[in-house]
Write a structure and sequence with these properties.
- The structure is a single chain.
- The protein is globular.
- The protein has helices at 17-21, 53-65; strands spanning 3-8, 26-28, 34-36, 40-43, 46-51, 71-75, 78-79.
- The protein has a single domain (3-79), classed as Alpha-Beta Plaits, CATH 3.30.70.
- The strands form two sheets. Strands 4-5-1-6-7 form a five-stranded antiparallel sheet, with helices on one face. A two-stranded antiparallel ribbon has the order 2-3.
- The mean pLDDT is 96.
- Helix content is 22%, strand content 36%.
- A hairpin with a 2-residue loop joins strand 4 (40-43) and strand 5 (46-51).
Length: 81
Amino acid sequence: MVKKIVFFRDECIGCHACASCHPEFWEMTDDAKSNLLDSVEIKEDVFEREIYDDDLENSVDSGESCPVNCIHVYDGDKKLV
């Protein structure tokens, strides 16, 4: 099953929580929003990145830390965050 992060960048308020939790996957940009590193844009301002089992816990932590819930983590069809 494919595990992935789906990030709705247009909803991001730039609080830095995701980058603090998982800096290997997130960076802050000059426009004060996060970028999901090594992701692909699946539609305008929506980005997706496949992840491995080793990254699942940190990805869930990033999603749970987001105050506006713009980070979604999936394990196959099951939404974890």
